[in-house]
Amino acid sequence: MRRLMLLRHAKTESDAPSGRDQDRRLDNRGRQDAADIGGWIGRHPAFFPVLVLVSHAIRAHQTWEIAWEAMKNGVPEPQVELMPELYGADPAQLLQTIHSASETDPKRLMLVGHNPGMHETALALAGSGDASGRKALAENLPTSGLAVLDFAIDDWADVAFRRGRLELFVSPRLLKQASDD
Fold this sequence. Notes:
Blueprint: E1 2-8, H1 28-42, E2 51-55, H2 58-71, E3 79-83, H3 91-100, E4 108-113, H4 117-125, E5 126-129, H5 131-139, E6 146-151, E7 164-170, H6 172-180
Parallel strand pairs: 1-4, 2-3, 2-4, 5-7
Antiparallel strand pairs: 1-6, 6-7
């Protein structure tokens, strides 16, 4: 079995001083949301990644760094790679990136990237799984949203659309709602 975690970057400022979209940074809410989702991952070791592929956009890299700070707790640091090809990637490109993980073959892989590609990919990969999570995910993959999909395979090259099982969908808003209950 292989576990894939798709994490959308956290909320950002609307414009970067440079004017380049790739240079946009996290705003205060984004920093808190990234820490919240990282803290949640840190409390659930089954969702801890072995390999993390991160878009080179500043907001994606900041999301990972803040999430990592919140999740590390005596666990080994995962291998992290910045990947320019994740910026603006569509589902076909993201699937190709997932397939490339077969070279190092981590059991748990995380991608940190952007919508609409991350949302579309999560929807395309989820052929079964958590019904309420699939319904919530169908609406949106919000900033700091995390979709966790399991695949009954032995090689990342075998990941295909509709073959994944949505194990979990979580977001800062859902975490807050759960803590308020």
